[in-house]
Amino acid sequence: MKEKNTVVVLTKKGVNRMVNEGCTASWHLIRNRARACAFVVCTRNGKHPEVEDREPHRSAFLIAKIKDVVPSPTAEGRWLIQFSEYAPLSIPDVWKKGNRNPVAYADLEELGIDPSTLEWETMPQKAESSAPIVKVSSANGRPHKGSSALTIPEAKKALALTFGVQPEAIEITIRG
Questions:
Q1: Confidence bin at 126 (pLDDT 50/70/90)
Q2: I need a surface site. Which of 154, 171, 172, 173 has the fewest CB within 10 A?
Q3: What is the pTM of this model?
């Protein structure tokens, strides 16, 4: 039996969104197993009411080389599969009927995919961002009574997204 070197996901998200985000997200999976894979193949969940593109249901439409598998900054216990390179696909009926979990593992050969025949594109570089600007609503730096305050966990999640790190890597110091 061949080694399963590929994560296969059933997703509603479109190619542009995943390329812009640099990943497919937010999956409940075993991180070490997914990190041991070289590729992720995205298949279309055409039955989802919020499907973003119109490839046929269960068809493979995107393959990417896995850069890393990192915790989702927005969904606890979920993972992002980051891309280093990607290539479009158009292969019908890749997602197996009856598979209830939207994450599966396979070998590229059994999926009928030869990575050496694909035209790989490098992921676009994200613009380096400076520290986000935080607006305060009063002279003493505190929000006015009744305004929406940002919590520390919310700030850590937002900063983690901005800088591409895990929320646990963010330290916030407040001097009063």
A1: low
A2: 173
A3: 0.72
Whether the CB-CB separation of 77 and 26 falls below 8 Å is answered with no
Nearest to 35 by CA among 80, 68, 1, 10: 68
Cα(13)–Cα(92) distance, integer angstroms: 17
Question: Under 8 Å CB-to-CB from 33, ≥6 apart: which residues?
Answer: 105
Q: Which two tokens stand for residue 156?
A: 């850590």
- State pLDDT tens for residues 42-83: 999 999 999 999 999 999 999 999 999 999 988 889 999 999
Please provide the DSSP assignment of 1-58 as one string.
-----EEEEEE---HHHHHHHTEEEEE---HHHHHT-SEEEEEE-TTSTT--S-PPTT
Over the chain, what is the mean pLDDT?
84
CB 62 within 8 A of CB 42: yes
From the DSSP assignment, how many helices (H) and strands (E) are in the chain? 4, 7
pLDDT band at 171 (very low <50, low <70, confident <90, very high): confident
